[in-house]
Known about the structure:
By secondary structure, the chain is mostly helical. The chain has one domain: Arc Repressor Mutant, subunit A (Orthogonal Bundle), CATH 1.10.10. 69% of the residues lie in helices and 7% in strands. The chain is built from 6 helices and 2 strands, in the order ααααββαα. Strands 1-2 form a two-stranded antiparallel sheet. α3 (51-58) packs across α4 (62-74). The protein starts with 5 loop residues before the first helix and ends with a helix.
Amino acid sequence: xxxxxxxxxxxxxxxxxxxxxxxxxxxxxxxxxxxxxxxxxxxxxxxxxxxxxxxxxxxxxxxxxxxxxxxxxxxxxxxxxxxxxxxxxxxxxxxxxxxxxxxxxxxxxxxxxxxxxxxxxxxxxxxxxxxxxxxxxxxxxx
Length: 142
């Protein structure tokens, strides 16, 4: 086996994580698009964000967030209300139906990974456990 440079290893890791993320996203969707699932997660995480907060978190333009929020509000996944202190600002919160959809998405992602892990040998499963620990270390704040 040839030795890779750190840059080559980083590039391979990035590609593998990107592909895994894409597979997870598409394996988990029910009645929502990937953009809607991502926005739903951001609404939950940010706790009553403004439309501007969501645009920044999702790295999309404000008009795109507005359209996405309107569709999701009509679907009953989120609820919008004016900010108490600044009526010009709209705040978004997840509804019980939105929370349930987010739980279903997360469950389907976990089930996808579990099926893949169960197909591995016991040695490969131990390697996967070590990989998880490694990724958690990578994600720690510096």
